[in-house]
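just leaving the lab so this will be short. below you get a single protein, a line of residues and a line of whole numbers that encode the local backbone shape. id like you to explain what the token line says about the fold, in plain words if possible. thanks a lot i owe you, the record is right below:

…
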Amino acid sequence: MSNKTKSKNNQELSYQIVLSYKVSHNYPIKTFLIECRDKLNECISIIWNNIEYLKEKKPKLPKSNEFKRDLRNKLLENWDYASHYIDGIIKTAYSILESWSSNYKKGYRTKTKPIVKRLFVRVKTTLIKYDKEKGEVRITIKPRTEYLILNIKNEWFFNKVRDLTIGEIILKENEAFLTFKDNLNYSDREIIVGVDSNLKSLDLFHPIENWIRVDLTELHRIKEVYDKKIDGLKKLLKKCPLRVLRKIKRLLERRRNRVNDFLHKLTTQLSRLFPNAIFVFEDLNKRKMYKNKHHNRRIDRANWNGIIEKISYKTIAILVNPAYTSTTCPICGSKMESQEGQVVYCSNCMNSFNRQLVGCINIFRKGLGKIKKLMGGPGVASTGAEVSLRKLMTPNPNVVYYVDYNGKYLKCL
């Protein structure tokens, strides 16, 4: 994911784009990965046994330097590989347990210890040597005795990452996921775009192009078609379970591949359509939107987090609080009332607006304020930040875009 770091003079806030690529290998490292997994589960168990529960039954993970030092020394016993892997294992264990703790506090998880079953290990940059000229990535398994070398010079992505800095690597039995870092600056961005995420569309407020809609009906249709096929097969589970489970697994894989293909093309084309933009999204939580069975199914088919995750690899994206974005009047700031359909009405300034338009404008303004705060106040580039009343009154988007499966940019029909 993307990271933000401040420079020493506090004048320029940089944003790190992380590019990830998969490379296959045939090194026999299964034994090494099994030992890493066992150490990870051992690490989770030690931390788990030292968790304190406060009066509010909130778990508190042990994070003192003394505890971490003792934990590291304990895990290094009978460890024949590079000691830096233990550091990565401890980091991964804390990440897993912090995720469990966060969900436990919200009531989404029970007091059950997480267990890792998959074979993988995070490789720190201290164990990686990247030769940009030869296109070789050397990973240390055992210091001075055993190395894993990946040649990426002939890979399709090599020219994209030739001059970038290599980051952590996730190593699996037959493949490795390489990450490369590229820095962007907020000051390089000329436009801020507010994005209102809806079930079948993304409504964007662009300060120059105004209200733009990106149609997501095809994404919803893909999921709906596969869900109906899978639901039909589930009725046959009692008659022939093994055969039905194989078919369901195959359909789920196809569904996932088609959805990922759509999301990659959508976010790539969106970042190319607005190359100098900061995208502002709502930080939505689906669990708070659940009402009934049919509504929940529709909500689950939305891919808001997937869109944010994938566009973060390609440009700058920030999140804002979604509270009251669709009910706050963009003119006077008063609370508005819903009317028929997508219309909202402000009784203070006597104006009616489209709900999606109001949402993306308020998200745009929240994003503008957050970026100004991050940048330390003045000096934020935001072309056309002022919104005119006339442009707010439009009942329909200025333009509607669709994903082009064969092109580089979103198509407009």
